[in-house]
Amino acid sequence: MNWKHTKTLLLILLAAVNIFLAFLATNFYSENNFTNDNTAASAAKILEKNGIVVDKAMLSARNDSADVLLCNYDREQYLCAVAALLFGKEADGIYRLPNGIRAETYEGASATIGYDLSLDYTSTELAGKGEVLRGITHSPEAGEVKAEKRMLETLLALPSGSLENAECIKAGVYTFITVDQVENGLPLFGMHCVFGIKEEKIVYANGKHLFCVPEEKYSAPILNRINILFSEKERGVTGTVKDITFCYTLYEDAKTDKMMLVPSYTVTYSNKNVTAINALNKELY
Amino acid sequence: MDKIKAKPIEKIKNILIVLLTLSMLVLAVIYIGGSQLMSNRAAINTADMPSGAVKAGSADTSADPIHEKKLLAVSYVGIRYSEKVGGAYGSESASDALVAFAKEQIHAMLSSDSRLTPSTREDFIEATTGDFIYISLASPLPYQAIYALCGEYVGAASSSHAANADKMLITFDVYGNSKLRLSDGTKFYTATKSANLSLTEIATLAGDSRLMPFSITENGIAISSASPKMQRLSIKENTPLDTKQQGELLFTLGYNPESIPMAAIEEASISAVSPLGSLTVTADGINYTAALDSGIPMSDFMPAAKNAVDIGMYDVLIASVSLAESLRSIAPDTLGGALSLCLSGIYHDSGVYTVELGLADGGIVISGEAYPYFAKITAKSGRFESIDIRFLTVHKNNYTGSAFPSKWNFDYAASNADIKSFKLCYAPNTIPADDVSAEWHYTVIGGGEE
User: Which residue, B96, B102, B144, B348, is the most exposed by fewest CB within 10 angstroms?
Assistant: First the structure.
């Protein structure tokens, strides 16, 4: 047996197997984990024919993945608990509204909390001070509000450092911090709230915020960006797509008393229309 | 010499074999790992959401009693108490608490132990000089319907007149004793029953800093110098129903999808004739006309079956709303999209009830020649005689705009007309339409809409 020739043959075989495997792996990732350039270009062409103009670079991207997250959520209990958290004590009076509740304290603080997770809260001491605050606000240096941001992170049970880059305004003794809620690195669609704090207390809140921490999760297949834009096409939407963002939208399930954070996409058009689409069933949110 | 030369080549070969073997293993792991272990493949088919899951804040209301379905489109609400005068447009959140409170009182004063007696314009206007809560609706409704939509239905007040109202005034004295006055701009009524109001609650409501000053005109119309806020709408081309939706629609209306010839179910439309009557579904809407002595049984849409002779306005209202909701659930985007249902009118003439349902966003109704109503349903003897539903694919734009204050527009319009009602509504000239904002519209006493 000629060992030299056997080695040469083995080398050729190994090289061939390597080339074959490299081809398979490249093909797999370009076809499955990514939407490749050709697919993206063809999809963009079809969409354009139907009135949706999109840059193929927005479609030629790695497929997104995220779990569906679940929080325990009982509407009535939740609203009362949020009121208590804002007041720092149980509310003295609660009025049922068609879309939520209005909670009040004997001291004059009031909060309107909606089923859609909207908040409109003004503490006793801030009530009626709108005129005083006007004209005396300033944007603080990052270091100036570090303590307030850390405190708000604690009050809202947010991960440490998550508010580091949050927008902030100082108005006398009050600090107003804008919280764009994020879970597992993904923004929560529409959950944008301005919180005002003073001396370790929330004195003002306006916007939408979910005061729940996800406790369970499950994985589900996610539709890619092309599927999402095709669902827009089916709905007859037209326009130029400026941005596609992967995010979470919120669904409540009264049967199981759960709030679900469902992977979704927001599509922003050049006319400033924004649509949010469920990435599991492509329904409009 | 050859042996000495051959050695480095053999060494290189050995090294290459080892390297290629390692590379093969790495590539195999990348490929197998990627495809089996770390698969990030996009979904091929859509996945179902849990059956009860709805968008946060929009809980499933189909099982709610009718008074909790927010069918009463309120265009303005105001309060005057102890020198404080303030009101809010129905599209603003500041109106919510006041509307909820007013509805409770109206329900109490229109209950069965009350009676409506004719009154005068002068009495209505005179009453606005004291403390009061004022509420105006997007369209005039019979007082029985207002009662049914304000609270649980037990029995409505009696009246010797068919009283309609879109303006209501609850006046109260220092002890909280109240009186209800109703008007449609031309006729005026007073309810005989009084309710006892909590002055503490009234003080809280009147103290809401979000309310803006307003006044009431001689015809009982509230006008304000504040600009109403509303969302702009985008009305899209309707998408024809798909085969699954067509099947569900036929089934909901009592037709057997299996028995209808395929030729009658085309890609975008259905045309079916059965003993129930004729049904046409196109991309524009649904049109049903009952066959002679037939019709879709209302009992299919009522919580409990009732003898046809016992069916009254309240039952027709429940069944019509349930029918509209069932159809909306089949293709929510095409049947009203982001807007909610509201009651625009309900009439009774020669044993035939007519229910008109509209689409509204926060008290601002879609109206006008291009889209006069969402659904017009007639019923007689426990059966639906005709159903006319107009599809509308409408989305709310993210932009919240504001219209000119009602006072400016009213002052201009009132200079040459006797105005009966003055409302903010979306009135698109064409469908589809982009960026539709609400505009002020008025009706003239003895005349039409401007």
Answer: B348
**Which of these three, A175, A191, A208, is where a domain ends?**
A208
Asked whether residue A107 is assigned to any structural domain, the reply reads yes
A98, A109: one domain: yes
Q: Are residues A55 and A169 in the same domain?
A: no
Can you give the residue range of the structural domain that contains A125?
75-208
Checking if the pLDDT of A134 tops 80, the result is no
Identify whether A29 is part of a domain: no
Q: Collect all residues of chain A within an 8 Å Cβ-Cβ radius of residue B93.
A: 99, 112, 114, 120
Q: What is the ipTM of this complex?
A: 0.70
Instruction: Show the 3-state SS of B129-176.
Output: CCCEEEEEEEEEEEHHHHHHHHCCCCCECEECCCCEEEEEEEEECCCC
CATH code, domain carrying A243: 2.40.128.690
pLDDT value at A153 more than 80? yes
**A255 plus A173 within the same structural domain:** no
In whole angstroms, what is the distance from residue B260 CA to residue B246 CA? 11
Give the per-residue pLDDT at A132.
45
H and E: helices and strands count for chain B: 8, 25
**A58 domain residue, yes or no:** yes
Number of DSSP helices (H) and strands (E) in chain A, helices first: 7, 15
Summarize pLDDT for B206-231 with one digit per residue, the tens.
988 889 999 998 888 999 988 888 88
SS3 content of chain B, % helix, strand, coil (to 5): 30, 35, 35
Residues B115-173: tens digit of each pLDDT: 999 999 999 999 999 999 999 999 999 999 999 999 999 999 999 888 999 999 999 99
**Is A8 in CB contact (< 8 Å) with chain B?**
yes
A131: tokens are 């005129």
Angle between helices A225-234 and A37-49 (to 10 degrees): 10
Q: Return the number of CB contacts < 8 Å for A and B.
A: 177
Q: Which two tokens stand for residue A159?
A: 């991960």
| Residues 84 through 123 of chain A touching chain B, CB cutoff 8 Å | 93, 95-99, 102, 104, 112, 114-118, 120
Cβ of B53 and A252 within 8 Å? yes
How is chain A split among helix, strand and coil, in percent rounded to 5?
A: 30, 35, 30
Give span(s): CATH 3.30.310.160, chain B.
234-395
User: Are residues A149 and A192 located together in one domain of the fold?
Assistant: yes
A191 to chain B, closest Cα gap in Å: 11
Comparing A54-68, B147-161, B199-213, B339-353, which segment has the lowest mean pLDDT?
A54-68
Question: pLDDT band at residue B445, thresholds of 50, 70 and 90?
Answer: confident
Distance CA B30, CA B38 (A): 10
User: What does the alpha-carbon distance between residue A83 and residue B156 come to, in Å, rounded to a whole number?
Assistant: 37
| Phi, psi angle pair for B31, to nearest 5° | -70, -50
DSSP B350-398: TTEEEEEEEEEETTEEE-SSS---SEEEEEETTEEEEEEEE-BEEEEEE
Q: Which of A147, A177, A208 is the C-terminal boundary of a domain? A: A208
Longest dimension (CA), chain A: 100
CA atoms within 13 A on the CB side of A280: 20
Q: Which of A137-146, A214-223, B102-111, B166-175 has the lowest average pLDDT?
A: A137-146
CA atoms within 13 A on the CB side of B41: 12
Q: Are residues A192 and A80 in the same domain?
A: yes
The pLDDT tens digits of the residues spanning B224-264 come to 988 888 888 889 889 888 887 888 898 889 888 777 765 56
pLDDT at A131: 43
Task: Give the integer Cα–Cα distance in Å for A203 and A127.
Answer: 9
What class does CATH assign to B234-395?
Answer: alpha beta
Mean pLDDT over each residue of chain B, to the nearest integer: 87
Does residue A235 lie in a domain region? yes
